[in-house]
Amino acid sequence: MGMMHRRTFFKATTGIVAAPFISKYAFADDTIKVAAIHDVSGVLDILGKPMASMVAMAIDEINQAGGLLGRKIELVNFDTQSNNQLYGQYATEAATRYRVAAVFGAVTSASREVIRPILRRYKTLLFYSTQYEGGVCDRNIFCLGTTPGQKTVKIVPYAMKKFGKRVYTVAADYNFGHIVSKWHKKVVEENGGKFEGVEFFPLEQTDFGPTLKKIQSIKPDLVMADLVGSNHIGFFRQWTAAGMSGRIGLASTIFGTGNEQLFTNPAEHNGILTSATYFPEIDTPQNKEFVARAAKVTGTDRSPINELPAMSYYAPKLWAEGVKAAGTFDRDKVIQALEGNLTYNGPGGPVTVDGKCHHVSHDIYIAQAKNHSFELLEKYDQLPPSDTAAVCDLAANPNDTKQYVLGN
């Protein structure tokens, strides 16, 4: 199949602009507003577009089913253009001008840390759906993304067993990459391996030639590549062009979250190991139906829905479960309801809230990229957010707002 240009992927989000727009329910008097804040354009649009698309799909489904507590949900969308300053501006606007009941969004950890204190100050509930480094402990946020204690601890030993025990890491140069690389080192050494080093790259980086030469001189058995965004796809293309495919193992905890398997050719991605809580290839009737619905929204015949947009779809559905259990849209009562270990059974499997740390359990898969798709190799059922739960107890410390650094 010929490749599709990433800027034509998501027809459902083409109306999102720097200023917000409101969904079709904007003019009803009996609506409750929520907001989505994502990088729909800019260097991180490869991640943000499908996330925004799936929030919108979830809200539409809630409305089509009659809304919540007899009221329609009105979605206000913001495009931050991959600019963290706009994240702060739009979070404030969502909370004060629109008085939304909840915000779904932030893509990177850096953008999350911009909006998290703002929304806490205004008592506006935040749902964060991106895989991240773990450790956020804050009663005003629920994190649906996977953490290293759910993914790194599984894929690194699996990849070491397949490729060998000498491991080098390349990662994005912000808090996600820095903390996850510490997890790589920890897990490599706990499994009898040797951590050969790490190199970090800004999101704007496109030339990886010097790094590839360094890797060729080090000759590790395995490279863990936790690189983020459309520019970093260049690493995988240049890796193949340098003749390194098949010579050194390549694995990632994040490959596929930017649909890298769709924007590279099979020679550039076949055999790369990755891990996620959701793949479109999950073979269940519920997921097949979800993939078909998502294809109509995105306007593609291949599903661009991976873990990040899947969890972005889960987030409004989980919030809705909290609203129904609470019998109100009141923030504090919805938080209390979600803290009762509520479960949402989504197309990739169930997620259950850990009420003490506001993270969720996940089914975790290990897969390998193959011909613009993924072959599922291993499944681990309902792994708890044990890393964050070990340091975060909001039942005992409800005013905690820290992000703990895990993996040291």
Summarize the structure.
With 408 residues, the protein is α/β, with parallel strands linked by helices. It is 36% helix and 22% strand. It is built from 13 helices and 16 strands.
Polypeptide structure, described:
The chain has 408 residues and is α/β, with parallel strands linked by helices. The protein has 2 domains: 6-146 and 282-362 and 384-389, 3-Layer(aba) Sandwich (Rossmann fold), CATH 3.40.50; 152-252, Response regulator (Rossmann fold), CATH 3.40.50.2300. 36% of the residues lie in helices and 22% in strands. The protein has a 6-stranded mixed beta sheet, sandwiched between helices. Strand 4, helix 3 (109-121) and strand 5 form a beta-alpha-beta unit. Helix 1 (45-64) packs parallel to helix 11. The longest helix is centred in the N-terminal third of the chain and has 20 residues, at 45-64. The chain is globular and about 65 Å long. The termini are far apart.
Unreliable stretches (pLDDT < 50, length at least 5) are 1-19, 21-28
Query: What do we call the CATH homologous superfamily of the largest domain?
Result: Response regulator
Continuous helix count: 13
Order of helices and strands: EEHEHEHEEHEHEHEHEHHEHHHEEEEEH
Q: Strand order of the main beta sheet, please?
A: 1-3-2-4-5-6
User: What would CATH call the class of the largest domain?
Assistant: Alpha Beta
